[in-house]
C-alpha cells in the first residue's frame, strides 16, 4: 500500500509544481490555478512532499521491522505510524476539500493549460484519504497484534527457592561457629571498647 501512496503523493505535488502555476496572456506574473490562491497550491505541494517522504521512511521501517528486537522500539514505531497515518488522513481530507472549493470558484477563462493537472491533484488527494485510512487500520491491527503477542508470550517467573550451592567437601552445615571478634563472658582484660 505504501508504494501506491508514494505514487499518489508524487502525482499531487508533481501536478501542482508542473502545471499548478500559470499566467494570463496579458501578463507574465504566475498565479495558482486554484482561484489565484497561492495557499491552495502551497498546501497541496506541502502535504504531497511530506507524504512522499514519510512513505519512504515508513516503508524502510516496514522492511526492518522484523529485525527490531526491542519491544519498546517496535511499540513506538507502530504508534508513530498510527498517529502519522491518522494525521495525514485528516490533512488529505482538508486538502481535498480546500482544492475542490478553490477549483469550483476558479473562472474557466483563467485556466487554459493546468486544468487537467488541477483535476488530477484533486482526484489523487481524494484517493489518498482512503488509502491513508487503510494504513490506519493496518497500523492499528499491528499494534493490537503486538499487544496480544506480548500478553500471551510473557510468563511471570515463578518464585522458586534456589538450591544452595554445594558445600566444600567434608564440611557439614550443622555446625555453627562463633563469629570472630566477639566478646565472651570471661572477664575483661585489656582494652574495652566504649
Report on the architecture of this protein.
This is Synaptogyrin-2. The chain is an all-alpha fold. 61% of the residues lie in helices and 2% in strands. The chain has helices at 2-19, 38-64, 71-104, 115-153; strands at 21-22, 31-32. The chain has a two-stranded antiparallel sheet. α1 packs antiparallel against α2. The protein is elongated.
Task: Quickly list its features.
mainly alpha; 194 residues; Butyryl-CoA Dehydrogenase, subunit A, domain 3; two-stranded antiparallel ribbon
Q: What share of residues is helical?
A: 55-70%
CATH architecture: Up-down Bundle
In N-to-C order, the SSE pattern is HEEHHH
Q: If you average the pLDDT, what whole number results?
A: 83
Tally the structural domains. Answer: 1
What is the structure about, briefly put?
With 194 residues, the protein is mainly α. The chain contains 4 helices and 2 strands; from the N terminus they run αββααα.
Amino acid at each position: 500500500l505504501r508504494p501506491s501512496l508514494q505514487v499518489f503523493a508524487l502525482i499531487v505535488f508533481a501536478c501542482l509544481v508542473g502545471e499548478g502555476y500559470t499566467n494570463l496572456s496579458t501578463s507574465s506574473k504566475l498565479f495558482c490555478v486554484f482561484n489565484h490562491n497561492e495557499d491552495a497550491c502551497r498546501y497541496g505541494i506541502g502535504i504531497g512532499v511530506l507524504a512522499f517522504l514519510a512513505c519512504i521512511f515508513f516503508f524502510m521501517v516496514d522492511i526492518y521491522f522484523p529485525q527490531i528486537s526491542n519491544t519498546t522500539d517496535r511499540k513506538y514505531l507502530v504508534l508513530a505510524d498510527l498517529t502519522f497515518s491518522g494525521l495525514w488522513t485528516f490533512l488529505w481530507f482538508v486538502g481535498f476539500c480546500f482544492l475542490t472549493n478553490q477549483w469550483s470558484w476558479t473562472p474557466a477563462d483563467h485556466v487554459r493549460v493546468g486544468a487537467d493537472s488541477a483535476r488530477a491533484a484533486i482526484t489523487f488527494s481524494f484517493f489518498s484519504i482512503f488509502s491513508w485510512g487503510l494504513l490506519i487500520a493496518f497500523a492499528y491491527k499491528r499494534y493490537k497484534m503486538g499487544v496480544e503477542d506480548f500478553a500471551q508470550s510473557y510468563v511471570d517467573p515463578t518464585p522458586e527457592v534456589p538450591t544452595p550451592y554445594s558445600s566444600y567437601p567434608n564440611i557439614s552445615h550443622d555446625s555453627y561457629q562463633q563469629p570472630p571478634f566477639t566478646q565472651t563472658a570471661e572477664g575483661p582484660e585489656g582494652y574495652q571498647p566504649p
